């Protein structure tokens, strides 16, 4: 094959964004400063949240939102096994015990009908993950959380721009954590943000993200800054840089256009692959929503395909097409099996998805011809004519 390698994801960075990064570099202020503040304000407007705090990653956001709970040994946090490891890792790092709820077979989202039976007297929080940018059924989830007095930290790493029943993720509920990793729907290189309606949590994250310094200490070397600061708690180093925010300031206005193009590509996959017995295509819930289409993740049917998921990924790579694996069910990783006693069989829906899921190429700059190459490579691999 002479075709160039087609990756499964690639960020779209405008010339204006590049010029903003250069301007930032030339301004003499590279780290946390005015551009981060501006980006936070723009994010707050876009997602519809009263407070947004920019951070070095979504992992940092999950960690700080959980750290603010001051979990005691044995305290439980409920989440899903179909997520990136960071969701569970940060529960453990904050001193909690991850409790998992199996997912729905069609949407791969936490099955909210199973949530009530996972709540115990030790439960402190719920972390729903809006998988691929498809919103979890939030009304019944929040009703349960309210009834039991639980914090809800939405892992919205895939879900900036996602809407649930006409409301944007971030514009209702408790706390949301967004990611700006290069594969996500908008990027700042690495980066993330927490949106919250809880002013106390926002203050705590503002403190913990920068060493536990008690005032806007990033500005202490500037003209208007205060040269003194106090350390009121041992904090982390989770601040976002202006260099990163410079990118974000130009990514955010492009987001709705990115989602429109992602949606076109995803719908075309649905149409083109509709009658292929090799695939079970991702389903959508009945409630009104806007899918952000961060990922397009069908499940391979190994019998009809005559190969398993890993062989499919390898075969596509040999045909110059990149694919992704999001995700293997987290409870099957050695750490989680060994420390929390999870076993294969505990969450059958997640396990079936984990064994068969694959992320096909999907990014805004992908052309229709790129997508046709994906389909042709697949047809060749499956020996379909
Ligand atoms: C990417 C991702 C994270 C972590 O985001 P970072 O910004 O890379 O730390 C957390 N949860 C999910 C579901 C993700 O996809």
Topology summary:
Elements: H1 15-27, H2 34-47, E1 51-55, H3 58-67, E2 76-79, H4 85-93, E3 97-100, E4 123-126, H5 138-148, E5 151-155, E6 163-164, E7 167-168, E8 175-179, E9 192-196, H6 199-208, H7 242-251, H8 255-272, E10 279-280, E11 289-290, E12 299-300, H9 302-305, H10 309-318, H11 334-340, H12 348-356, H13 368-382
Parallel strand pairs: 2-3, 2-4, 4-5, 5-8
Antiparallel strand pairs: 1-9, 6-7, 6-11, 8-9, 10-12
Helix pairs in contact: 1-7, 2-7, 3-4
The structure holds pyridoxal-5'-phosphate.
From the structure above, extract its key features.
385 residues; alpha/beta; 3-stranded antiparallel β-sheet; Aspartate Aminotransferase, domain 2; 2 domains; Aspartate Aminotransferase, domain 1; single chain; 7-stranded mixed β-sheet; binds pyridoxal-5'-phosphate
């Amino acid at each position: 094959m002479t075709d160039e390698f087609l990756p499964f994801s690639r960020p779209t960075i405008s010339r204006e964004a590049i010029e903003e990064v250069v301007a930032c570099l030339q301004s003499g202020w590279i780290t946390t400063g005015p551009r981060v503040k501006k980006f936070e304000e723009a994010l707050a407007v876009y997602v519809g949240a009263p407070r947004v705090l920019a951070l070095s990653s979504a992992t940092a956001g999950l960690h700080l939102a959980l750290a603010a709970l001051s979990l005691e040994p044995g305290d439980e946090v409920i989440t899903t096994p179909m997520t990136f490891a960071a969701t569970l890792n940060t529960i453990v790092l904050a001193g909690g015990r991850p409790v998992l709820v199996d997912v729905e077979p069609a949407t791969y989202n936490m099955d909210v009908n199973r949530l009530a039976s996972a709540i115990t007297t030790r439960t402190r929080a719920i972390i729903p993950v809006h998988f691929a940018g498809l919103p979890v059924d939030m009304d019944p989830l929040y009703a349960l959380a309210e009834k039991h007095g639980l914090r809800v930290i939405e892992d919205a790493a895939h879900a900036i721009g996602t809407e649930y029943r006409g409301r944007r993720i971030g514009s209702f509920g408790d706390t949301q954590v967004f990611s700006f990793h290069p594969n996500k729907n908008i990027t700042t290189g690495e980066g993330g943000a927490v949106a919250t309606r809880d002013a106390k949590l926002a203050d705590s994250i503002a403190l913990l993200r920068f060493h536990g310094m008690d005032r806007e200490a990033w500005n202490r070397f500037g003209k208007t800054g205060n040269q003194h600061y106090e350390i009121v708690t041992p904090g982390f180093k989770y601040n976002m840089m202006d260099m990163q925010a410079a990118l974000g300031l130009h990514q955010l206005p492009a987001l709705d256009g990115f989602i429109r193009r992602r949606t076109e590509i995803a719908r075309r996959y649905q149409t083109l692959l509709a009658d292929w017995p090799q695939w079970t295509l991702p389903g959508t819930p009945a409630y009104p929503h806007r899918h952000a289409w961060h990922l397009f993740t069908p499940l391979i049917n190994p019998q009809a395909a005559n190969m398993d998921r890993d062989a499919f990924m390898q075969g596509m790579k040999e045909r110059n097409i990149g694919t992704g694996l999001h995700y293997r069910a987290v409870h099957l990783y050695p750490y989680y099996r060994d420390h929390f006693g999870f076993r294969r069989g505990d969450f059958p829906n997640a396990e079936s998805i984990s064994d068969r899921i694959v992320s096909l190429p999907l990014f805004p700059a992908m052309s229709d011809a790129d997508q046709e190459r994906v389909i042709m490579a697949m047809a060749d691999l499956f020996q379909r004519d």
